[in-house]
Amino acid sequence: MIPELGHFALILALLLAAAQGFFGIVGASRGNVAWMRAAQSAVTGQWVFLVLSFGALIYAFIQFDFSVRYVAMTSNSLLPLFYRIAAAWGGHEGSLLFWGLTLATWSVAVAVLSRNMPLPFKSRVLGVLGLVSVGFLMFTLFTSSPFTRLMPAAADGNDLNPLLQDPALAIHPPMLYIGYVGFAVAFAFACATLIEGRQDNDWARMARPWTLAAWLSLTIGITLGSWWAYYELGWGGYWFWDPVENASFMPWLMGTALIHSLAVTEKRGLFKSWTLLLAVGCFSLSLLGTFLVRSGVLVSVHAFATDPARGLFILAFLVAVIGGALALYTWRAPALKSEAGFELASREAFLLFNNALLVAATGLILLGTLYPLVMDAMELGKISVGPPYFGKAFLIPMVPLVLLMAVGMHAIWKRSRLGPVMHLLWILLGAAVALALFVTLVVYEEFHLMGLVGFTVGFWLLGSTLVEPIKRFGGWRTLPAGFWGMTAAHVGVALFAIGVTGVESYRIEKDISLGIGDSTVLEGYEFRFDGTKNVQGPNYRAVEGTVVITRDGKPVTTLHPQKRFYASGGNPMTEAGIHGRLRRDLFVALGEDLGAGKWSMRVQYKPLIRLIWLGALFMALGAAVSATDRRYRARSKVSAAVMTGHAAGEAAR
Amino acid sequence: MTPRRKRMVAVAAIVIGVGAATAVALQAFQENIMYFYSPSQVTAGEAPAERSFRLGGLVTSGSLQRTPGSIEINFTVTDNAETIPVKYSGLLPDLFREGQGVIAHGKLGTDGVFMADEVLAKHDENYMPPEVADTLHTPKTAGGAS
């Protein structure tokens, strides 16, 4: 009974989403206040019914209701409660419902938190969000309902993919979705601006905190995914340029460009149409990501199902959304004017370079991700683009980006006035080169060109970012939150660059065969294999190895890598043993019994790998701090009055 | 320099920079495109001799061979029509099994043995890489046109 109620709630939510879309957009264009208010009520209604619907699904999981097909597919009577709840979004159908709920939650947040927004504009924003929601809920209902019953009911479930039975991965998809879907808000603001043909920059100021919040979630989601892949997949890598990873990374890059471009539009009224285009592009890439992941065109850990109907539906939806938005853009954007000029070394110019380079990086990744699909669709052969391409191609825009960042942060709006700061920056650059040489030659005892370049740009950026905060430390309270957010995020980029450089230049990876008592040495660390034993977990049994690590005869740690066999299937899983420190990780994964008392084993030395995730967390922190900036909360009385007046005028029209 | 000259120099520098970057990116792209071949295609001599490529098929049942205690492993990959011997040294993925789908990256040796530097198995047990599924000669179609 409960699953049917969930299904019914989903249908009601779809109807309300349609009402939200219709009354929001048509109500605003007719100036019908009652309709606009109806759209706002529809937002809340849609959200309530989606919460009920998703609650019904979670209830089915908690109750082990294996008569529901989706529950039977993704859970199991031995699955612990936490993972039973996480399983609600661990498969295709549930994750789509969760997507719809996330979108509704963002919409409610916009409706509730934007009290100062003119009513017609707000209702257009909500209307656009309603239309996006209609697409998603229809997709869920018609091609992938999680409430479909199984006749007869299964005696026991299939189990959640053991790869997903992990705390980081249980929250990785929700964070990612919150981010993906959050870009829908920026998209809706952009569409509403285009529909109204607004010439002012208010939309940029209103959209920026939402974009920051979405970007923040996406950053955390991607970081969790990377961290999970590192310790769970047993390869010891943090990023594989897997098409699905790229699918989440492209909106992130575009979102990064959007955050910066919004700042220019907000403060200087420039790049108006470019910012709108970025907002559209960013959400389009999020939808493209959904298409790639959910349509089954990709071979990947993430591809759940191959159902052509689903792929076709998402493709049609993608074309409708992108096509509609671009048509709107071509119709309205030419009327937008950015009149102010700026000089070559002004802040605007640096942010323009930032945008160009980030978009170029997105384009290079898009090329490598889509090219194989296009070739395959045109029957020109089955190819894949190897990770080395992405690694190299990504560096091309990134090195200049980081170098320009170090200078650009000190540029002022409108004019080229870098003189006095440049002197200091040159000194810092010299110091960064010297420090990078020291690190490569003395600490890691080996010259490595990309290592030198990477450390130099990383150290330089770190130094340059810290100049202003140190100078103004006494009066830190007077500085806006936006400044501190920027500082934290840029420190994050520097840490990230240093981390990636360390790992990529100086990692050591070995696959070897070790007998009991045998040992191998990596960078002075001796790894001794002390044999294996059997252990029992709640829904798996495992073979656990013991590896004792010593350095110069002194014990460092003992690692226990496992090979797990889940009760639900013969699908073994690697659980790596990791000893992590800020300056290096030691990684051991257990392979298989090779016979003759030996085991295959993967041992790795990963310098500075933690800085990668730490850097990403700093970036997320920066976004969080920036979003709290006063200018997004308090509004001067004058502009509030103008807005209300504007609203009244619009409504009367 | 006059502002006008300055701007010209800046524009020229950007154009040269973008051009060089595009060239490097396309070069990297060209080098890293990997084609997929089935055992039948390799036997027919379609696969390149110098370049790395991806070989996909099923791990032939009973073909797995390893000297006890050694990390090196030999097996053959089949599409139910032809088989190709593969040599690999390293950890095998968790889902590597005889009779299951596999994709190996590597180069073809002069002796006809495929020297794999990476072996990928399918990601879950209900799933077959589409490339492999497409090229398999299932008993039904093997007799007819393939």
Low-confidence stretches of chain A: 300-305, 636-653
Roughly what is the average pLDDT of chain A, rounded to an integer?
Answer: 88
Q: Which structural class do the helices and strands of chain B define?
A: alpha/beta
Indicate the overall shape of chain B.
elongated
Helix and strand element order of chain B: HEHEEEEEHH
Number of strands of chain A: 11
Give the name of the CATH architecture of the largest domain in chain B.
Answer: Beta Barrel
Question: What is Rg of chain A?
Answer: 26 Å
Instruction: Report the β-strand fraction of chain A as a percent range.
Output: 5-15%
Quaternary state of this entry equals: heterodimer
The spatial strand order of the largest sheet of chain B comes to 2-3-4-6-5
User: What fraction of residues of chain B sit in β-strands?
Assistant: 25-35%
Which keywords apply here?
A: 653 residues; alpha+beta; 6-stranded antiparallel beta sheet; 4-stranded antiparallel beta sheet; B: 146 residues; alpha/beta; OB fold (Dihydrolipoamide Acetyltransferase, E2P); elongated
Structure overview:
The complex is a heterodimer of chains A (653) and B (146). With 653 residues, chain A is α+β, with helices and mostly antiparallel strands. Chain A has a domain at 517-609. Helices cover 64% and strands 12% of the residues of chain A. Chain A contains 19 helices and eleven strands. Chain A has helices at residues 2-30, 33-62, 69-74, 81-86, 92-113, 119-143, 167-196, 202-232, 243-268, 272-294, 308-332, 347-377, 387-408, 419-443, 449-471, 481-506, 609-627, 630-633, 637-652; strands at residues 383-385, 508-515, 519-522, 525-536, 540-551, 554-559, 562-566, 572-575, 577-580, 584-595, 598-607. In chain A, strands 3, 4, 5, 6, 7 and 8 form a six-stranded antiparallel beta sheet that branches. In chain A, strands 2-11-10-9 form a four-stranded antiparallel beta sheet. In chain A, strand 7 (562-566) and strand 8 (572-575) form a beta hairpin. In chain A, helix 5 packs antiparallel against helix 6, helix 12 (347-377) packs antiparallel against helix 13 (387-408) and helix 14 crosses helix 15. Chain A is globular, with a radius of gyration of 26 Å. Chain B has 146 residues and is of the alpha/beta class. Chain B has two domains: 1-33; 36-141, OB fold (Dihydrolipoamide Acetyltransferase, E2P). Chain B has helices spanning 3-32, 39-43, 130-135, 139-142, and strands spanning 33-37, 53-59, 72-78, 83-89, 101-108, 114-121. In chain B, strands 2-3-4-6-5 form a five-stranded mixed beta barrel. The model of chain B is unreliable at 139-146 (pLDDT under 50). The chains are: A alpha+beta (653), B alpha/beta (146). At the A-B interface, helix 12, strand 1, helix 13, strand 2 and strand 8 of A face helix 1, strand 1 and helix 3 of B. Strand 1 of chain A pairs antiparallel with strand 1 of chain B.
